[in-house]
């Protein structure tokens, strides 16, 4: 664990990861700390970069994005310029939720969200296949999400 985090910081971060929209009064009650001390700690956690942002997590199915696809990308080379161009351009594809540089058989793994298999076929053809240096792609469709969290173990 990070040496700057004490047990109270960890409790605050645990609650905020699951309920980021709660008021300071509710947060302070849940972690058993005075509102002013809680507010100071949250401000310090924000300024020290432990808390990067606050977001609303949407239900993908409710907005019509029920297809999750993991795409392994193999590039034609490993030159820095090619990797940088790929990373720059893939970040501009709104359907790509995550992109990870890998060690192993694939150069990158992407997590892609789509409306349907037909919609993914369009994304694959019009966007992913046109990214710089793409030599090959292997796609795996998620049948069902068993477990998903954004909360890190603190």
TrEMBL record:
PANTHER family: LEUCINE-RESPONSIVE REGULATORY PROTEIN (PTHR30154), TRANSCRIPTIONAL REGULATOR AZLB (PTHR30154:SF34). SMART domains: HTH_ASNC. GO terms for cellular component: cytosol. SUPFAM superfamilies: Dimeric alpha+beta barrel, Winged helix' DNA-binding domain. GO terms for biological process: regulation of DNA-templated transcription; response to amino acid. GO terms for molecular function: sequence-specific DNA binding. The keyword Metal-binding does not apply. Keywords: DNA-binding, Transcription, Transcription regulation. It holds the Pfam family HTH_24. PROSITE patterns: HTH_ASNC_1 (PS00519), HTH_ASNC_2 (PS50956). This is Lrp/AsnC family transcriptional regulator. Residues 5-66 form the HTH asnC-type domain.
């Amino acid at each position: 664990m990070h040496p700057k985090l004490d047990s109270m910081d960890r409790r605050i971060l645990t609650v905020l990861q699951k309920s980021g929209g709660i008021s300071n009064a509710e947060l302070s009650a849940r972690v058993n700390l005075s509102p002013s001390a809680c507010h100071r700690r949250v401000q310090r956690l924000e300024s020290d970069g432990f808390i990067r942002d606050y977001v609303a997590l949407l239900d993908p199915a409710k907005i019509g994005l029920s297809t999750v696809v993991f795409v392994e990308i193999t590039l034609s080379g490993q030159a820095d310029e090619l990797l940088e161009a790929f990373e720059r351009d893939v970040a501009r594809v709104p359907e790509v939720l995550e992109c990870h540089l890998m060690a192993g058989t694939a150069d990158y793994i992407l997590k892609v969200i789509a409306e349907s298999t037909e919609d993914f076929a369009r994304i694959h053809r019009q966007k992913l296949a046109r990214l710089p240096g793409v030599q090959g792609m292997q796609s795996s469709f998620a049948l069902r999400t068993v477990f998903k969290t954004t909360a890190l173990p603190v």
